[in-house]
Amino acid sequence: MNESDQGTQPDLVVRSNARVGWALALSGAAVVAGAMVWLLEAPGVLGQVAAGTVAGLGACWCWLGVWFLITPAVVGRTGELWVRLAPAHSVRIPLEHVEAFLLQPGPALPWLGDRVRAACLVVRLAEKAQPWSQQRRATWMAIWCGPYITLRGTWLEPLCVEKVHDWNAQLAQLQRQTHPCQASSEQPTSAAAP
After folding, report:
1. Is residue 194 domain-resident?
2. DSSP 3-state assignment of 118?
3. Which residues pair with 136 in a beta bridge?
4. Is 145 inside a domain boundary?
């Protein structure tokens, strides 16, 4: 899902929540800094090993935040849509199987249930698109149930109706680029007046 994979900019991008990325990166950096101070003051080898371990975990946490900042949640290019279901797991879906983006309320985080709700982005797939419409997966970032992939809004850039309309317009443009004959046959034609 790297933007450099094909050497072109993607035509459709849904960004990750920058606040989450910054929070992870900065808290990880703070843990590393604290562990480095502890490492300098730690008595004995065991204390130094513990401080080094904490510094390593903090560095991983910081890296996760930076990765979250630079990696989009959804990327669309001619012919394909990449959807991130978890930090290290994205799926490639052929564009002809994607019908639309929808906005709906849903649980903000799975462990909070319905007590805390957030706007969610839904990727609607064609039901006839086997096996894409038959998937069932759930992660803490997304739920894929049948022809609906629901991305929790907690992990996405702020969502609103205007953005979803823009993404649907970009999706339609990508689909026209991918299948120009099919797109032109779907549009009504009008006769020019003499």
Report:
1. no
2. strand
3. 145
4. yes
Task: Return the CA Rg of the chain.
Answer: 22
Please give the mean pLDDT across all residues of the chain: 81
Residue 6 forms part of a structural domain: no
CA angle 39, 44, 47 (to 5 degrees): 45
Q: What is the pLDDT of residues 148-162, one digit of tens each?
A: 999 988 889 999 999
Check whether residue 78 and residue 165 sit in a common domain. yes
d(CA 157, CA 139): 18
* Residues ≥6 apart with Cβ < 8 Å to 142: 83, 84, 85, 86, 149, 150, 151, 152
Are residues 87 and 168 both part of a single domain? yes
Extract the tokens encoding 173. Answer: 């443009």
Under DSSP, is residue 180 helix (H, G, I), strand (E, B) or coil? helix
| Residue 1 maps to a domain | no
Burial class, 14, CB count within 10 angstroms (exposed 0-12 / middle 13-18 / buried 19+): buried
In the structure encoding, which two tokens stand for residue 190, read together? 């009008």
pLDDT of residue 108: 78
pTM: 0.74
